[in-house]
Amino acid sequence: MNVVIIGSGNVASVLGRMMQQHQINILQVVSRDIKNAQLLADKLKTTYCDFTGNIESNADLYIMALSDKALYADFSFLKINNKPIVHTAASVSKNILQKISDNYGVLYPLQTLHKNNKETPLIPFLIDGNNEVTLSLIRSFAKIISEKVEVADDETRLKLHVAAVIVNNLSNHLLSLTESFCKKEHVNFELLKPLIEETFNRILHASPSEVQTGPAKRKDQETIDKHISILNNHTELQQVYKMLSESIVNNQ
Questions:
Q1: Angle between the 10-21 and 34-44 helix axes, to the nearest 10 degrees?
Q2: Backbone dihedral region for residue 119 (phi beyond 0: left; psi -120 to 50: alpha; all else: beta)
Q3: Could you tell me the residue range of the domain that residue 34 belongs to?
Q4: DSSP-assigned states of every residue in 22-34
Q5: Is 174 helix (H, G, I), strand (E, B) or coil?
Q6: 195 and 110 part of one domain
Q7: pLDDT number for residue 252
Q8: Contact at 8 Å (CB) between 17 and 41?
Q9: HSE, side-chain direction, 13 A CA sphere, residue 239
Q10: Within 13 Å, how many C-alpha atoms sit on residue 224's CB side?
């Protein structure tokens, strides 16, 4: 399979590395910024160009590894002879590509990706296509690079993206607020890291509701009140603590 990657950021870099590891032929890297295109192309040992360059027209699949916002730009310069093209965004409809090709879809990696990470984590792919032939091609491609591939339409993909933001981005922000609290109160946040690791390891093997612990789970209002008092000088974290504690109590 011959593939052209459009983009040069985290997703493009990780997907490119995965394709390279599975002997998928990367014909070209295309990026708005020629320097970024060259940097990624050099790593992937392939050719490159910018949006005004000579873009390969004979690939089997074109992957637009771009941000959600970037997908709304004018891509009329892409002349790919109705070859299959996909984007990698969670919250953008596959139909945004219908002006580029008659065969289009989605290849969304449900994972946080960083191009500088040495190891690639397990990446589930949510795929979709506007017709069966295109979907079959996307599925075949995805199964080469991942053991977890599921078909998900625009609505399903968006719902899973909401869930992903909550478990990844919002939980990380909660940890960030906690780290800030520890610094201001002169206690060692590093001491919490084994607990963080154990907490997340548990939910890999059980339902989060089954392993819930803590004062809110026990309805220990005396301890909850003490904690809220400690957080008097940390209004934002105090509000989060109250809201989540109430949610735990109400969902038992």
A1: 20
A2: beta
A3: 2-151
A4: TT-EEEEEE-SSH
A5: helix
A6: no
A7: 79
A8: no
A9: 2
A10: 18
pTM: 0.91
Tokens of 20: 């390279």
Query: Could you read off the pLDDT of 121-144 as tens digits, one per residue?
Result: 999 999 999 999 999 999 999 999
Domain final residue pick, 106, 133, 151: 151
CA distance 123 to 82: 28
What would you measure as the largest C-alpha separation in the chain, in angstroms? 69
pLDDT > 70: what percent of the chain?
A: 100
Token code pair at residue 123: 């990446």
| The last residue of a domain, from among 95, 126, 151 | 151
DSSP bridge partners of 212: none
- Eight-state DSSP code of residue 123: -
Instruction: Write the burial class of residue 235 (CB in 10 Å: 0-12 exposed, 13-18 middle, 19+ buried).
Output: exposed
For residue range 23-76, what is the model confidence (pLDDT) as tens digits? 999 999 999 999 999 999 999 999 999 999 999 999 999 999 999 999 999 999
Q: How many CB atoms lie within 10 A of CB 121?
A: 11
Pairwise CA distance, residues 126 & 110, whole Å = 7
CATH of the domain at 122: 3.40.50.720
Phi, psi of 52 (to 5 degrees): -100, 0
Q: What angle do CA 72, 76, 82 make, to 5 degrees?
A: 105
Reported as a single tens digit per residue, the pLDDT across 236-250 is 999 999 999 999 999
By 3-state DSSP, what share of the chain in percent is helix, strand and coil, each rounded to 5? 50, 15, 35
Interval 159-179 mean pLDDT: 97
Within 8 A by CB and 6+ apart from 90, the residues are 68, 108, 110, 126, 157, 158, 160, 161, 164
26: its two tokens:
């990367």
